[in-house]
Amino acid sequence: MTQEQAGVRFTLLGPLRLISQDGTALPAGPPKQQAMLAALALSPGRALSIARLTDALWGTHMPASGVSTIRTYAWRIRQLLARAGAGGGVLVSVGDGYRLAVAPSVVDALHAEELAAAARRHLAAGEPRQARQALADALVMWAGEPLAGVPGPFAERARDGLTELHTAVTEQHFEAELQLGHYQQALPRLTEVIAEHPLRERPYVLLMRALYGMGRQVEALQVFHDARRLLVEAHGVEPGVELTQVHERILRGDSAVAPPPARAEHPVPAASPTVPEQSGPRPPVPAQLPPDLPDFTGRTAQYAQLEAVLTAPDRSSPAIVAITGMSGVGKTSLAVHLAHRVREQYPDGQVHVDLGDPDGKGEPLSGADLLGLLLASLGVPADRTPGSLAERRGLLRSVLDGRRVLILLDNVSQAAQIRDSLPGTPGCAVLITSRTRLDGLPLHAQLALEVFEPQEALDLLQRGIGTQRLAAERSDALALVAACGRLPLAIRIVASRLAARPRWTLRSVAERLEDERRRIAELRSGPLAVEAVFQVGYRQLAAQQSNDFVLLATVAGAEFALSEAAAVLDLDPADAELRLEALVDAAMLDEPIPGRFRYHQLLRSFALSREHDRAQERAALGRLLVSLLATARNAFALAVPGDPTGDALGTGLSDVPGIMMSDLRSARAWAASSADTVVAVCAHVVELGTAPLLRIAVDLLIAMSPFADELRSNRLAATARKLADAVARIPEPATDRRGYQRVVGRAEFLCSTVALHTSRPDEVERHARRAVAAASAGKDPVILRQALNDLGLVAQLRHDYRLASACFHQAVELARELGHRSGEVASSLNAALAGLRAGDPDTAVATCESALAVARGMNDAPGTGFALYVLGLAHHAQGLYEAAVERFTACVEHCLTAGIRDREAHARFRLADTLLALGRHEDALAQAGQALLRCEELGVARDQAHALMVLGRALAASGRTAEAVERLTRARGLYVALGLPEAEEAARLAETVSQPPLRLVTENPGAA
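Now predict its structure.
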């Protein structure tokens, strides 16, 4: 059965729809899918290759998933055709592409072309009556902008072509009417067409002929002069042949220009009726603007941009501007404020229509109903208002012709809702607000309104609570507007509550907003409520969209990547992107950069306050954990090549490949971008407290531990402790005790390794000893080796080199048993460093030379950097300062290339030590200063203390005693806070430096 036989049709001359056998209009799916269907429908019976289709959708910017996305769309289009009753065999696979097996006549755009071609034949045969009917049938097919809202290069080209077709068909219809002598009926609509297309010559020709046919020769000649002046001024060109010839024929009085009217002929309308005459008193000039806000503030740049458009002189088309943005961002406030400021420019009236449905109980206002409201506002009685949309549209434009009226259309849901209500006369203006972008309208400007800048937010708060109160609590005021997400409505609400409660402090209100799940309930004052405006957008979501909105906010967090959303929604990335685009289009989600999505903090709070399926939440959280762990393992393998720890993490889970990365830099970039999600997801697991999820979360944070800098060490430490506490609360099972001990051991190891990075030696020792015991009981040798290494490092920090060496040598033996070459290198280097601190630099040099060769052979970047670093320390201890400088310099250069920032900082302050020993004080100052800056960036207190010690000694050697004492005193404070023995050395050195004559100590005993 063919498509034509099935009675299924495609409409492209407006929003793309598929019309089923029973006349039901079916949505054609998400925008990109519509773009593919449009390309196929406009090429019926012709095969389009994958290359043609991807070019149609994306042009030169095809995503990596483009081909698979095309396949997905094809499958969905087949399902859509089946629902419409088209049967099988309509969308046919041809080669690597597809063909839509339909007749051109079932596609409205192609049928319109067929009717236009038939009309041309009728006109050529002297049959204007038949031509007029065919053209009227064609024009009635247009329902707004062709392919409205359909994206992509092909849709843009097709839209331009179909718009041109509409204009050409309209002109042909006028030609038929004029040949029938229907001059009076054609005149109003011809004026509208010229206003819409002022540089198109054909409508001027038709208007001159219509005026001439009505006996208005002077006006016809004036049309020519007006057109000529416009063409010369706009483009510096004279009128074309047809316009010039009609002018000359009218001057000669050529009656053939306009034949006499046909008496019995009745026109077939393609436009609207003329303005009805009215009796009785003249209706008042509409002044319907809502009152302006007395405390309006901010938006200076945006206001100036839109005001310039609305007040521009000598416009050739009506000024149409749109303000878009999320609910509560202040679109209506800005629009009303702006309308009041420019109302003097529109003396013939200001009309306001709110198209919103705040209660969610009604249907959106239709285009015909909106036209009826506008006509009523402009004084057209109800009994004079025509019934059809086309007639109302034409009447509105006729009523507005020659007048200066400002129309404010608030809370528009989509472009199609208002397209027919736009005036044609250049003296009018339309100011639109909408949550979504209104593509496809003839806009002079479209402003995407963002939340307030910090100072704008403070200014609005100040207008509500007063200058003195804000000045007295300025820091709390900043925290309060930040808790409001700088959303104008939220700030207005808290200002109202504070004004009504003068004894409340700003801090108390900010604290009430800290609970994310209670925040929305707090943002309410009388009739104002953030929840109410968010509900409007939420109710307009389809069921699947509202579920996605809540689930993503609950599981993925405030900001997330496409891959993370795909895991939460259990979709492939292409399908997930379509679902996310729908939320972005609805202004419920933002896409700050391609592939990353973000909730406004209050929208996320709103989502968290919605009821949802807890079982679905746990399943989605598990999928996200597994996906993150898979990618984290890939990153771990680049950070610590050859380390079997990554392979031991997440064993027994589904085979999810995760995102692959090419090098350590890309791994660090991924870790930095996913840090917030990882921490939020782990915190969510702690809330739920289920053992399987806790096990995955612990493994995830272990895999992320090489990227402590990217996760911010203190935040990582806090999350690790919460996970460990949650694991400790799980009762030990009677069976699988070994598995339980493994989870406990991993949680304790995670805490020890994070505490080591944040310089908390007591915590390191406590957690490392627990980890050693649990990993031994759980037969988890990979974690046992790591825990022994941590225990050795904390012993070394405390100068207990015997214990350190024992732990490191056990770790080396385990690494050999595991075949863990890079782990063997690291533990061997740690043992060499312990031996060095114990006074054996010669053995350390031999060990390091061997380890360096192994690390380089494995492309082990961290191992190579560590070996160079310890070699530098060993050569310094041997008194071979030039050799030490060479090794430290090589370490710095290597770490800069590999992106190993902490080891780079260590090497710099040790290099400064060696340069001091060589008497190169200025070079030492430079290296110590750079080391301190890097340590402060990383936020590791122990390393900052070491860098301050070296910098203090370099300053003292340069004669800058006061600065030296200040740095050394700061170092001592950090050592004391950390409980490290270097505190005494820092105090002694500060005292020595401050009492001349200076006796410079050239050795820093601290070890990194």
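The chain has 46 helices and 16 strands.
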